[in-house]
Amino acid sequence: MRAFWKHAQEIAGWLAAGRLLVTLDFDGTLAALAETPGQARLRPEFRAALRALAARPGVGVFILSGRALPNVRRLVGIPGLYYGGNHGMEIQGPGLAWRDAGAARVRRRLAAAAADLRERFPEGTGVLVEDKVFSVSVHYRNLKPAYRAGFFARMRALGAAGSDGLRWTRGHKIFELRPEGAPHKGDAVLRLAKKLSAAAAIAVGDDLTDEDMFTALAASGVTVRVGRRAGSAALYYVAAQAEVLRLLRFIAASRRQK
Question: Do 63 and 158 reside in the same domain of the chain?
């Protein structure tokens, strides 16, 4: 991985040409990681930078999150942007409202799985089970030490047993149950880039699920990971989440040069 700011001048020239799609993860990228999903907030200066970037001619801004679509739209709260929820299983924005049909077909199974998980891991364990309609998240950031061994043993057993048409994935302090074969973030980025006829794309993220969009854009875009990580498919990195604000302003300034 290369340090982004050491190559910023050459990247600026590339960003200035043609229609640009800017894709950003939310948790850990636009907003600092919180103890629970409900505590996450977008700071005002980040919101202002997103507005300024979206106002640049020829720029599409895509907020692509593992959160449910209504949730991420509410947290960002800026009209005119494109939003992706459930890692790209649902996308909305100007002239676009799309949902993966396969994910919609298994929503009852996912709801039943969420109910079962809540029984297995009640509130007192520190585990939070989140039903996101098209996926289920099991957050263990606040897992109490007394339940740690039992929790991971149970999750290993669930993963080994499998579930017809569903699969388990991992992220930052989270297990996620998703429809088998459902679109991921890489699919979502390519779908929207094609829809917008984008000549260039930049994607920024910090989690394991963001590796899908880094891989998808490996040959045709600029990919930036928040935090250096060995083995990441991202070409560049910035050191910390706070640097994403500088990055947003940098992209907007690059478009002014056009």
Answer: no
**Whole-angstrom distance, CA of residue 141 vs CA of residue 144:** 9
Note if 187 is an active site residue: no
Are 94 and 118 in the same domain?
A: no
pLDDT tens digits, one per residue of 106-159? 999 999 999 999 999 998 999 999 999 999 999 999 999 999 999 999 999 998
**Do 205 and 81 reside in the same domain of the chain?**
yes
Please state the pTM of the whole predicted model: 0.94
Contact 122, 189 (CB under 8 A): no
The reply to whether 164 and 199 lie within a common domain is no
Helix, strand or coil, per DSSP, at residue 135: coil
**Type of residue numbered 56:** R
**Catalytic-role residue among 25, 27, 210, 212:** 25
Q: Round to whole Å and give the CA distance between 169 and 224.
A: 22
Q: Where in the sequence is the domain holding 229, given as residue range(s)?
A: 2-99+183-257
89 and 194 belong to one structural domain = yes
Backbone dihedral angles phi then psi of residue 199, each to the nearest 5 degrees? -85, -20
